[in-house]
Amino acid sequence: MEIYIDHILYQFCEDKHIEPLKFFAKQFKAVSDFPYTWTLWKNWGVHMPIIALHDNHIVGFHAATLTKTGYINSYYQAVDLSFRGRQIAGNMVDFYLKAWAGNYQRLKLKTPIVLGMTAPGYAFWNGFGLKPFAIDSHNPKHPEHIWNEDLSEVVDIASLISKYKNPKVKHLVPDLAMNFAINKGWKIL
Predict the structure, then answer these.
(1) Do 80 and 59 contact (CB within 8 A), yes or no?
(2) HSE-up of 5 (CA within 13 Å, CB side)?
(3) Measured between alpha carbons, how far is 178 from 133 in angstroms, rounded to an integer?
(4) To which H or E segment does residue 177 belong?
(5) Helix 157-164 / helix 88-99 crossing angle, nearest 10 deg
(6) Is 97 buried (19+), middle (13-18) or exposed (0-12) by CB count in 10 A?
(7) Is residue 62 within 8 Å of 74, Cβ to Cβ?
(8) 159 phi and psi, to 5 degrees?
(9) CA distance linking residue 109 with residue 173, whole number of Å
(10) 19-64 per-position pLDDT tens digit
């Protein structure tokens, strides 16, 4: 599957892009551990990240996995500084929602809290109307917002926005995930 929007090609990473993607990710402190972690988890070839290409150069990526239980786990995301503000990050989310349509029920992710303030990841996901349900502050140097959102009836970014920009939508978290958070001592929001 490929999508071409405003001179940017969106596709799953191919083997020929792995080394350039590793180099690209190391430019960004927030995702610099991506190459090591993706290799450690043996995700290459199994869970290929989505990449955004401009003139055959990587200008963005989003590394997520689709679990057998129907969760999309979003782990890493970055866009080249000179390409920010062009909806590339949102288009990558749209790409995997379309590519995996019918195979998911929920979205899980974590976003860092930096110096007591929300980081760009929070603003990005909250911009679609999503909300974290907990804060994990067990590591005081790296607290994180914890997100677990229902994706029923979501097939693309437009339906995600439509669903979560509705003020009547309740952000319900499965009992298993809520109990896990409580048992971990996370602050429930």
Answers:
(1) yes
(2) 15
(3) 9
(4) helix 175-184
(5) 100
(6) buried
(7) yes
(8) -70, -30
(9) 13
(10) 999 999 999 998 999 999 999 999 999 999 999 999 999 999 999 9
